[in-house]
Design goal:
- The protein has 720 residues and is α/β, with parallel strands linked by helices.
- The protein has two domains: 318 residues, Rossmann fold (3-Layer(aba) Sandwich), CATH 3.40.50; 318 residues, Rossmann fold (3-Layer(aba) Sandwich).
- Helix content is 37%, strand content 18%.
- Strands 1-2-3-5-4-8-9-10-11 form a nine-stranded mixed sheet, with helices on both faces.
- Helix 4 links the parallel strand 4 and strand 5.
- The longest helix has 22 residues.
Length: 720
Amino acid sequence: MRRLYALMLLFAASAFSSSGEDLILRNWLAYTDADNALYHALCLEAFHHLDVRQERVRNIHDGASWQAFRDEIRAKLNRAVGSLPAKTPLKPKVAGRLQQDGYSIEKILFQSQPDFYVTACLFLPEKKGKHPAVVYCSGHSNEGFRLPVYLLPILNLVKKGFVVLAFDPAGQGERLQYYDPQTGKSAVGGPTREHSYAGAQCFLAGYSPAVYWIWDGIRAVDYLVSRPEVDAKRIGITGRSGGGTQSAYIAAFDERIRAAAPECYITSFRRLLQSVGPQDAEQHFYHGISQGIDMADLLLARAPRPALIIATTRDYFSVQGARETFAEVSRIYRMLDAGALLQMTEDDSVHASTKKNREAMYAFFQKQLDQPGSAAELEVTLPDLKTLQVTTTGQVAGLEKTETHHSLNKRRVQLKIEQLVKSRAGDGHLNRVLERAKTLSGYRPAADSGTLLFAGRQRKEGWVWENYLLPLEHTALPFIKVYADQGPVPDRSVVFLHPQGKAALWEEEKNWQPFARNGYAVIWPDLSEIGELGGGALKGDSYDFLQGKGAYNMWFLSIQVARSLVALRAQELNALVRQLKKPLDPQGRSVSAVAFAESAPVLLHAAVFDSAIERSALIGSFVSYEDLAGRLFYKPEYISNSVAGCLGEYDLQDLAALMAPRPLAWFNGCNANGQALTREQCEQAWSYARQAYNARGASDRLLIQVSAESTPGEILAGLW
């Protein structure tokens, strides 16, 4: 009999093999762009803040209103970037000298922070005396500043009498942050991956990784002004692409830079979001757009010092945005009687350097840094690129003692954790957690959903399978409802959240079928950026790294507008639960929820923010945001459901503690790299949650278990 029953279950499961039958939205033309709905919703948030900012700028008409606005912008930029490190000795070393035709090169190693090394080359004109100087910032290249496209303008500047300091950005050139000595390459990938992988952990600690790029640049200026060949009153900065980002940032934060010429970067956030979309980690500010920060503010923060916007008409950084930013900033410069100090040059090209734009840059620095001469570009002979290597091994990682973005951030993380531990020991911690979690995550209760749309029913081997759409403010939530084909429709439901959405129904039958057999309606939804609501146009710099599981870049955008993805998904889940609980009788309906892997934080946030979820279970959840932020290597897909700035305020176990005394189960916990933890490790990691359940006399309602034989679904269906 048992064999026959097992065969029946196997046959029933095979009938539920995915063949596109989980696709619900394809038959609804109103939702054919549902895979981009989340991006559009976040953009609308951004546009609202940018509209408010734009109106504020329009109302600047005199010196007093301008001064007040500039003070606000500087304060906002400081908050968005985070506290700059303390200045410590640079401990510069000249690792070698190269004599070239008409100039010389010194290979420099200095420490922008203790044991955090910067590799650079100083290009010196042959003529003696004090010279104007330019900091050159390279774009996202594996080679750092050593590419011919960067060396051409560098050598032209030095031939025209400028001292030029070119340095490797972190994650590039000789400064790989995740150097693998076995391969000689980065363990996480190219420059943008290095930036975003470490940068995501910085955001968890509540600051922008841009602080490290800015600080390296400020310390580069410190080194320049220490040189006897440099006139400290005539400092400029330029760079293209990622170097354009750096040069705009550094100039906004360092008043010693008289003239700035960012190339192929300046646009506006509105046009950036409408076109190519958000970029890698350091190009984002913590809650920046929500504070009313736009790219123009990088120029306005330093107005009316000289600036040149360098653009190309077919750049993926929208030239329309560059023109609009130039127009906005120009009005302020003219109001300050400094209209001639802001210029813009553009050429008809792609995201590239052109001779016309380079000559405009030469002329700009010659005028603004008082170094007269011809701006015509010279033919130059490039040095052997290998001779520009600063370290003996080719990587600072080979030095005896080195810091990295990860190790520097880990210290900030530790301070945050100490703050959180102290808060847990005091009074009122959980009340603060509830409020701070709502604020930091950007959670907003969902408005009443529209009419629930029934989209079809079919019966398969003893199961009823129904399709639905729940219209929400920004999209429609598709979900499948499955229950046993016998007796009345169940009045209690269990919602399953899975990283693959409802498409995972077919691979998780051992977890959901026990519930269906015990009289539950099993609900499988797709939440934003999952299943039919995912796979949209935005891919970003790490999409392939995440194996199609979304992109860092969507998360970065959510940080800019202070609306976390986990809160948006929790909002969707709670709207669904409220719909499921609409009573058929005075007692209403019972709704429980189960979340797999990285979906677990969605369920924890949703259940804390709305008590409508009566029982919750996590299967294969990572242990904590602390572990996610502090571990050298982590699973990138876990980032999407984390909350920037949460460290020091709350963690997953604090949310679990808030759920007491409602039943909560955690099965098969893992660390942030996906490695299984023992039950003892899980208990230790969630000791505060255990303490909260014990205090409510509900110790038996927090189940922490490692299950090797019985599936969590079988255990829970019997308990619930």
